[in-house]
Amino acid sequence: MSAKVLIVDDEKDFLEIMAERMEARGMEVSTATSAEKALKMILRESYDAVIMDLMMPEMDGFKALKLFKETRPDLQIILLTANVPEEKCIEAIKLGAMDVIEKPADLDLLTQKIEAAKAPLRNKQG
Amino acid sequence: MDQKPGNTSEMGLQFFGRMSASISHEIKNVLAIINENAGLLEDFSLMAERGMPIDPGRLKTMAEKVKLQISRADGIIKNMNRLAHSIDETITTVDLDQTIELFMALTDSFTVMRGVKVDLQLPGSPLTIPTAPFFLMNLLWLCLDFSMSASGDEKRVELVVEETENSVLIRFRRLAGLSEALLETFPSEREKNLLDVLEADLTVEHGREEIALRLLKNML
């Protein structure tokens, strides 16, 4: 079964091209340009993984991470970051992020992470 | 002129560090888009090897997007270079419009992140004044940072530059959230030290929902 992924980033060009490349790898991809929009989508749909930029206008990745985890505790969230100190990455993991990956990201690595994100859900579904 | 090197140097470094971190973040975002375009090109060439045709129009669009990102990065780096050179001479004569436009470009990502819209109104004619451009931008940043906190629900700040006979007024207006509690923290020693360096003064007009920075046209 293909992975269902939501990518959240305020850089539209980045979103479009990531979605295209991930779809070419067989994933079902949705996109959102803000955490607020992503939250509405998370409430409506279930995703195997959410790939989210840490630095976004108004609701940043940390706030969004907390809110998403409160809303859907099982949600696997992989954070993308252009530039964040190590302590912030550790903080994100403590808040429940599955991983923090630095931009520019390697899509093969990201695909592996998405596959790993699917595993706990698969096990849970039996 | 009292430069208070200890305080202003430390604040200057903090300001420079903050702007540099933001610039490096912006550049990484540009690199990420270029990286994905390169990745997509790789995907296309793999598909072509398997006999799938490549749409030349698609390649053209990708090339245009990469060029756009390179131009974006070029603008970011030029601004970084101008910021770095703004401390070459502590006091120099500057075109105030250009200094404020550079300041706006450097702080754009901060205002966007906080969801605040800043409307800039410059005077109709060019304005040159002797000032300490780096410290002026540092003080403008502290004023803008405060103004964003004081912008209230409207999240809009007007930055108005006006020329008077002997001075230049830089006003941060529409501060609907300006409260007594906020004013207990502003202006602090940080702002006061920079005001000394710039031989400027700052007034807070609670009733008019604005703060105004007055720079002399002729620094001593």
Describe this structure in words.
- The complex is a heterodimer of chains A (126) and B (220).
- The model of chain A has no long low-confidence stretch (mean pLDDT 91).
- With 126 residues, chain A is an alpha/beta fold.
- Chain A has one domain (4-125): Response regulator (Rossmann fold).
- Chain A has helices at 12-24, 35-44, 61-71, 86-94, 107-125; strands spanning 4-8, 28-32, 49-53, 77-81, 99-102.
- In chain A, α3 (61-71) links the parallel β3 and β4 (77-81).
- In chain A, α2 packs parallel to α3.
- In chain A, strands 2-1-3-4-5 form a 5-stranded parallel β-sheet, with helices on both faces.
- With 220 residues, chain B is an alpha+beta fold.
- Chain B has 2 domains: 5-85; 92-216, Heat Shock Protein 90 (2-Layer Sandwich), CATH 3.30.565.
- Chain B is 56% helix and 18% strand.
- Chain B is built from 6 helices and 7 strands.
- Chain B has helices at residues 5-49, 56-85, 96-113, 133-149, 180-183, 189-198, and strands at 92-95, 117-121, 128-131, 156-163, 167-173, 201-205, 210-216.
- Chain B starts with a helix and ends with a strand.
- Chain A binds chain B through residues 11, 13-14, 17-18, 20-21, 24, 55-58, 60, 80, 82-83, 102-105, 107, and chain B through 21, 24-26, 28-29, 31-37, 39-40, 43, 65, 69, 112-115.
How are the SSEs placed, and which strands pair?
The complex is a heterodimer of chains A (126) and B (220).
Chain A: E1 4-8, H1 12-24, E2 28-32, H2 35-44, E3 49-53, H3 61-71, E4 77-81, H4 86-94, E5 99-102, H5 107-125
Parallel strand pairs in A: 1-2, 1-3, 3-4, 4-5
Helix pairs in contact in A: 2-3
Chain B: H1 5-49, H2 56-85, E1 92-95, H3 96-113, E2 117-121, E3 128-131, H4 133-149, E4 156-163, E5 167-173, H5 180-183, H6 189-198, E6 201-205, E7 210-216
Helix pairs in contact in B: 1-2, 1-3, 1-4, 3-4, 4-6
